[in-house]
Write a structure and sequence with these properties.
Length: about 110
């Protein structure tokens, strides 16, 4: 499948919508100092990994492997949540940039 077909809004945006929902829940859990962040973080990690696979791994953020290792090592920590949130933010920027580039090349 061509890169432009993989990066359509219909294909990619559901990952970010789901992360937005999860991150809102995670922020609440951390604000309440609850210990139940592990399960939500596991969902977030799986979601990010699926997004990476959907993009063919080509658009991975800088030091993605190291950062994911950190998140996996201590998922209940607020710092791990922030790191995962930053990974999603950077991935969204890279995808948007790639979409613009692909649209320019198509015209």
């Amino acid at each position: 499948m061509k890169q432009s077909q993989k990066l359509t809004k219909e294909t990619i945006d559901p990952y970010f919508v789901q992360w937005q929902r999860l991150s809102t829940e995670l922020l609440y859990v951390h604000q309440q100092r609850s210990k139940s962040a592990d399960e939500l973080m596991a969902q977030g990690i799986l979601l990010f990994t699926a997004l990476l696979e959907e993009c063919g791994g080509e658009l991975a953020p800088l030091n993605c492997g190291e950062r994911l290792s950190f998140v996996n090592a201590k998922p209940a920590q607020f710092a791990a949540f922030r790191q995962l949130d930053e990974l999603f933010t950077e991935m969204n920027k890279k995808i948007s940039s790639k979409r613009i580039q692909l649209n320019k090349n198509a015209h």
